[in-house]
């Protein structure tokens, strides 16, 4: 016979797996280590990796993100350095829809309804409403009731991104 069926050497494969296995710490160990290194920071896992925020500090949502613990810690250190050099806080990152809604409000110079922002910016009404809600949550815009319509205007005390 010319051919013999090949069978893997199970003992060699098991030895290779045992040598290359690196113990991976579980999330609670990583979270505890990061929170001990950065007091006041809360860490959690997201679908995209790891996220962290400093408790009680605006804006809402994660302040730092990373795929690994090392990337997250670099992000936290960046936020800490940025806050030290910018006492009023880091610049707020806005989504495109929020930038469009904010630009429309700035150009108008007066309070506008979500429908008016939608018409002037070209955003869908639901997108404009969501963007204005996000800007309101960050404290960039305020709203007041005018009859049955919410009117949005720029918040006076917030530093606006360009």
List the helices and strands and how they pair.
Layout: H1 10-20, H2 27-37, E1 41-46, E2 49-54, E3 64-66, H3 69-85, H4 96-108, E4 112-113, H5 114-121, H6 125-137, E5 141-146, E6 149-154
Helix pairs in contact: 4-5, 4-6, 5-6
Mean pLDDT: 79
Radius of gyration in whole Å, from Cα? 25 Å
Strands ordered across the widest β-sheet: 1-2-3
Beta content comes to 15-25%
Order of helices and strands: HHEEEHHEHHEE
Strand tally is 6
C-alpha end-to-end distance: 79 Å
Shape: elongated
Describe the structure.
There is one protein chain. The protein is of the alpha+beta class and 162 residues long. The protein folds into 2 domains: 27-85, no CATH class; 96-154, Orthogonal Bundle (Arc Repressor Mutant, subunit A). 45% of the residues lie in helices and 18% in strands. It is built from 6 helices and 6 strands. The strands form 2 sheets. A 3-stranded antiparallel β-sheet has the order 1-2-3, with helices on one face. Helix 4 packs across helix 5 (114-121), helix 4 packs across helix 6 (125-137) and helix 5 (114-121) packs across helix 6 (125-137).
